[in-house]
Amino acid sequence: MSREKNRFHDIMYVDFKRFLMILSNTMKNKDFKKIAEFHGHVCPGVAYGYRVAKAALRELGEKAKDEEIVSIVENDSCAVDAIQVLVGSTFGKGNLIFRDYGKQVYTFINRKTGKGLRIGIDFKAYKETVKDKAVMDKFLSGNKSPQVMREVRKVKDKKIAVILNSPEKGLLTIKNVKIKPPDKARIFPVVRCEICNEKVMEPRARIKEGKVVCLHCFENPPSNPLY
Ligand SMILES: [Zn+2]
Ligand SMILES: [Zn+2]
């Protein structure tokens, strides 16, 4: 068995004390601290996002200060917050694009070099133990007693430690892709909706019965006003 495999095996099956040690080392990592601060808690989702973001930056260059890297995310899970923090693609800058496909797949494009990457999470090696599954089943069926919550935290901490310490191969699938980056963020003229009186950017406005209206007022009958 290779050394890497051995290490992975150790992490999967060592006792909880060791997980806590790994976790406390992780908490000292300044990137992970930033993610935890932004996201509000530490969970397996942000651990996955951390691994994806690190792989993306290694291949594409440094964090986007402006719109240098475009990230296309195919889910809105916790992982996306780690990507926003580390890759610098944010909703507000327009270089974070959400496609609601329900897939753990992330595409990154460097606008300068044109290089594109498609990174998927496919953690084949991770197997929940019977005990872990029983704990999570209790939690998911609504049992939030202090004892169950303590056990859930342990299961999650263990998973975080495993995600952060597993070799990339077997955790992520990374493909080079050629895709055209979307246009940079633009500023559009603003019009006023003639029904709700709120302002709306012109390309999103519609005409309804001869009136310029916002999408809400266009799609909803007068019996369902905006407010
Ligand atoms: Zn989370
Ligand atoms: Zn309106």
Shape: globular
In CATH terms, what is the fold-level topology of the largest domain?
60s Ribosomal Protein L30, Chain: A
Strand neighbour order, sheet with most strands: 2-1-3-4-5
Q: Which ions, cofactors or small ligands are bound in this entry?
A: zinc ion
Strand-pairing-aware structural class: alpha+beta
Summarize this structure as a short list of keywords or feature phrases.
227 residues, alpha+beta, 60s Ribosomal Protein L30, Chain: A, Wheat Germ Agglutinin (Isolectin 2), domain 1, 5-stranded mixed sheet, two-stranded antiparallel ribbon, 8 helices, 9 strands, 42% helix, globular, disordered N terminus, binds zinc ion
What does this structure look like?
By secondary structure, this protein is an alpha+beta fold. The protein folds into 2 domains: 175 residues, 60s Ribosomal Protein L30, Chain: A; 30 residues, Wheat Germ Agglutinin (Isolectin 2), domain 1 (2-Layer Sandwich). Helices cover 42% and strands 17% of the residues. The strands form 3 sheets. Strands 2-1-3-4-5 form a 5-stranded mixed β-sheet, with helices on one face. The chain has a two-stranded antiparallel sheet with strand order 6-7. Strands 8-9 form a two-stranded antiparallel sheet. Helix 2 packs across helix 7. The longest helix is centred in the last third of the chain and has 20 residues. The chain is globular and about 70 Å long. The chain starts with a helix and ends in an 8-residue tail after the last helix. Bound molecules: zinc ion (2 copies). The site of one zinc ion has 9 residues, from helix 8.
